[in-house]
Amino acid sequence: MHALQGVRVLDLGTYLAGPFCATVLGEFGADIIKVERPGTGDNLRRFGTDTDCGDTLVWLSESRNKRSVTLNLGDPRGLEILRELIATADIVIENFRPGVLERWGLGPEVIQELNPRAILLRVSAYGQSGPNRDLPGFARIAHAFSGLAYLAGEPGGTPVTPGSTSLADYMTGLYGVIGVLMALRARESTGKGQVVDLALYETIFRALDEIAPAYQQFGFVRERMGADTVNVLPHSHYRTKDDRWIAIACSNDDMFARLARAMERPELADEDELGPKAKRLAARDLVNELVGGWVGSLPCDEVLARCKQAQVPAGQLYSIADIFDDPQYKHRETITVEESRIGPLAVPGVIPALSETPGEIRWLGPELGAHTDDVLTELLNRTPEDIARLRAGGVI
């Protein structure tokens, strides 16, 4: 038994944000029908590192558990099949520019007529309304527009993309999961579906803690701070004697006092020294110099051991090579090795862990159109002859 067993999702999206929502739903048992263009498929198949099977590592990992169906939506017969599939779905996911569904004659009102219980998730760069609604955008643009990229980097340096990852796509996919699950819950009472409208930039902006109230109240414009954090200290990255990096996070005065004892400098936490947070913030360079000097005098393992003994939150900055060797990752199966079309492949595991209805990876990203015949037969009662005619006509 899976948590979302019996829920059918029609994934019309491309690239990552909308499709990642479908991926998470599929991990917990939803039946994901991935609709793609015949011949080329989703652009995500070519986004990332190429492999011998013709699809990228990103596709293999992030299109797990999906059934691939090809449909030519430029053909009226393909659109008719899509309409029939919508009638069978609980959730429809799209992340085109606003207006594309409407041009196909499949706007929210039409979808509601076809299937009053259907929940439509719409993901776009700026949302379905507002002066920017028609502008294109990807995760990098969302990082810029949301204010995140402005904050990332060293003081006075070039703003950077945090982690060189498509964070906005993943965050928006997760908010999409929240939205459709709430809509499913509401449908239990109303019997009706609804539209979930998400903009890439909004999900990033939502994670920027007090940046909005701090500006509204005090006119404070947060600038790039490198590894530091605006309101707590020491809360940064420090280089060890053996040229590794660790993170130390002292979020209150008690934690700093414990760190001072670990440093064998307990007097630093005195009331008239650096004990109160306000005094540490006023002496940021000095605090970082003291902590950085102590960390730099010891090898990484020794620093971490002393912090552990003193109950100071600390951890090494891991590369992916470090992650693969770590016993915590192994114990939690945060990385799992699954069979794929290129052989055994390491991919991120399923989260969160549910005690009674856990998720699972049943297969990795499928070949283009691998499930077309099955879906048309199972859901739409097409015969082998019907399917052969559709294929000959370039509809599938």
Report a brief summary of the structure.
The chain contains 18 helices and 11 strands.
Would you mind describing this structure in some detail?
It comes from Parafrankia soli. The protein folds into 2 domains: 8-206 and 331-392, Rossmann fold, CATH 3.40.50.10540; 235-239 and 245-316, formyl-coa transferase, domain 3, CATH 3.30.1540. It is α/β, with parallel strands linked by helices and 396 residues long. β1 (8-11), α1 (17-27) and β2 (31-36) form a beta-alpha-beta unit. α1 (17-27) crosses α8 (167-190) and α11 crosses α14 (300-310). It is elongated. Helix content is 41%, strand content 14%.
Topology summary:
Layout: E1 8-11, H1 17-27, E2 31-36, H2 57-62, E3 66-70, H3 76-88, E4 91-94, H4 100-103, H5 108-114, E5 119-124, H6 139-146, H7 148-151, H8 167-190, E6 195-199, H9 200-205, H10 211-218, E7 235-239, E8 245-249, H11 253-262, H12 277-282, H13 284-296, H14 300-310, E9 314-316, H15 320-325, H16 327-332, E10 335-340, E11 343-348, H17 372-380, H18 384-392
Parallel strand pairs: 1-2, 1-4, 2-3, 4-5, 5-6
Antiparallel strand pairs: 7-8, 8-9, 10-11
Helix pairs in contact: 1-8, 11-14
CATH architecture of the largest domain: 3-Layer(aba) Sandwich
And the CATH topology of the largest domain? Rossmann fold
The span between the termini is: 33 Å
**Mean pLDDT figure:** 97
Main sheet makeup: 6 strands, parallel
Write out the strand line-up for the largest beta sheet, numbering strands in chain order.
Answer: 3-2-1-4-5-6
Quaternary structure annotation: single chain
- Number of strand segments: 11
Poorly predicted regions are none
Structural class: alpha/beta
Give the H and E element order: EHEHEHEHHEHHHEHHEEHHHHEHHEEHH
The gross shape turns out to be: elongated
Rg over C-alpha atoms, rounded to the nearest angstrom: 25 Å
Strand content: 5-15%
The helix count comes to: 18
CATH homologous superfamily identity of the largest domain: Crotonobetainyl-coa:carnitine coa-transferase, domain 1
**Approximate helicity band:** 40-55%
The number of domains is 2
The first-level CATH class name of the largest domain: Alpha Beta
